[in-house]
Structure formats: structure tokens, C-alpha cells
Amino acid sequence: MEKKSLNAPDETRTFDKGKLEIANLGNISIGRFRLEPGWKWSTSVKPIVKTVSCQAPHTQYIISGKIKVKMDDGKEEEFQAGDVAYIPPGHDAWVIGNEPLIGIDFTGAKTYATKT
After folding, report:
1. Phi then psi dihedrals of residue 68, to 5 deg
2. Which of 116, 115, 102 is nearest to 31 (CA)?
3. Alpha helix locations (H) across 1-116?
4. 68 closest CA partner among 45, 87, 94
5. Can you list the domains of the chain with their CATH numbers?
6. Rounded distance, CA 64 to CA 83, Å?
């Protein structure tokens, strides 16, 4: 049995208009993210990771706010508070509206916003 709190994360990553707090439980990393209005992956994180699109897979629960995701193949979807989502590698995303996006990521936190 192991217990961690995202209120005292093992790691915090900051980037333009965003923050990711990570708790590590064995080989599992769970992250709480906060993305401010105006955040867009291609302008806020792409300069850090230097990939064409986001290559992190995300399994997420959205607590508040709204985000639009566009896959490399052109498919688009919007997610908002209460939604759960699986977003495979190969996408761009941006916050919609004036409310920060807050959520929990169960699969993408370990590699998110790190150089590949």
C-alpha cells in the first residue's frame, strides 16, 4: 500500500501557461494539470519537446474548463468538466474559453513536457 498527495507532488513541471504536478506510485505516475486560457500545446509545450505533435498518450478526467483536441489525421473533439478521455499520441490541443482547464492524467504524466 502506498499513499501520495498531489498537494505535495513528487515533481512539478511548468511551461508557458501551464503546470503539471506529478505523484509517483511505484512505476505509475499520475498528474494533475492546470492549463490557463491561451494555452496551446503547439506554442506552450512543442518548443520544449521539439516533436511535430504531442506524443504522450493521455487517459484523463477533466475537472473544470474546456479543451479542444485535434489529431494528426484531422479528427477533432472537445472535452469539458465531467468528461473522461483517451487521447492517443499524435495531437495538438488548446484551452477553449476564459476558464482554466484542470484535470487528472493517468497515463501521460510521466513523459509529458520532457525532451524526447
Report:
1. -115, 135
2. 102
3. 41-44, 46-49
4. 94
5. 11-98 (2.60.120)
6. 9
Q: How far apart are CA 83 and CA 80, in angstroms?
A: 6
In this structure, what are the phi and psi dihedrals at residue 70, rounded to the nearest 5 degrees?
-125, 120
pTM over 0.85: yes
* CA-wise closest residue to 106 among 7, 30, 27, 55: 30
Whether 95 and 37 have beta carbons less than 8 Å apart is answered as yes
Side chain identity at residue 116, one-letter code: T
Q: What is the DSSP string of 39-105?
A: -BHHHHTHHHH--SSB---EEEEEEESEEEEEETTS-EEEEETT-EEEE-SSEEEEE-SSS-EEEEE
Query: How many residues can be counted in the chain?
Result: 116
- Please compute Rg for the chain using Cα positions: 13
- Please answer whether residues 38 and 93 qualify as being in contact, where contact means their C-beta atoms are separated by less than 8 angstroms: no
**pLDDT tens profile 60-109:** 999 999 999 999 999 999 999 999 999 999 999 999 999 999 999 999 99
